[in-house]
Automatic annotation (TrEMBL):
GO MF annotation: an example: UTP:glucose-1-phosphate uridylyltransferase activity
EC nos: 2.7.7.9
Catalytic reactions on record: alpha-D-glucose 1-phosphate + UTP + H(+) = UDP-alpha-D-glucose + diphosphate
KW Cell membrane (keyword) present: no
Lineage: Bacteria, Bacillati, Actinomycetota, Actinomycetes, Micrococcales
Gene: galU
Enzyme class: transferase
Domain Nucleotidyl transferase: 11-276
Family: Belongs to the UDPGP type 2 family.
Pfam families named among the record's database cross-references: NTP_transferase (PF00483)
Protein name per Swiss-Prot or TrEMBL: UTP--glucose-1-phosphate uridylyltransferase
Keywords: Nucleotidyltransferase, Transferase
Amino acid sequence: MTTAKVRKAVFPAAGMGTRFLPATKAMPKEMLPVVDVPAIQYVVEEAVTAGLHDLLMVTGRNKRSLEDHFDRMPSLESQLREKGDNNKLASVQHATNLGDIHYIRQGDPRGLGHAVLRARGHVGDEPFAVLLGDDLIDAKDTLLADMIAVQERVGGSVIALMEVPHESISAYGCADVTEVPGENYVKVNTLVEKPSPEEAPSNLAVIGRYVLHPAVFDVLETTEPGRGNEIQLTDALLELAGMPADQGGGVTAVIFRGRRFDTGDKISYIKAVIQLASERADLGPELVQWLREYVPTAPTWENK
């Protein structure tokens, strides 16, 4: 089955970031640095590496610094050039040259499904990718490119799944799937948003990468608010899974077994920073040595 090429990526970035208050009172959570690069830049780089250069940010209030980050700053570039600081100059210019970035406001904070729906005017009638900024995928992995290849071959929509401990499934959307012999994807039968471990159909969690058929827009238009009184993308995907293929229906999934860094909560964010910094040649040796000295003396909390 041949479908239109995937050319565009959408980045929902209108959330309030309340888990990281007070840091996110005046700073978008997407701009929190993971080592020395804002989290959102890792995700944009992933989309560009997968061949997507038409990029749409769905933002909200107090997100101006996000736009500024991907814009030119001639005065700073001039200062760095005059100082001969070519490495920092290159890193600053890299962020401004990633792709053709557009911005739209979400307006009412009505959930992920609503944020995706706001992209309709820009995306039009073609398949597109959605990348959530809380999930950082190791740059060596080809998850998004694999998903795009499946969508362009099979049609419908494609989601990313990852095995998680069964007791953790209530933090995720969860999928019931059927294997497709000889293929690198599975068929999605049903989706449940944040089920209890007892009710979960599997331990396959939906993570923040989607390649969606444009039929999702019509479905989202009529999707009633669900959990949290928000329009849930999971609910729209569940409806798409039961629709005929010639109407843009059908949902498949790529099961991801690579490295994912969750920056959606404080402890996972801190772990991501430490892991990525430890692997950098300019920081790793000193940081790892310090960790080896510090960890044996760190507080123990078992009895506190």
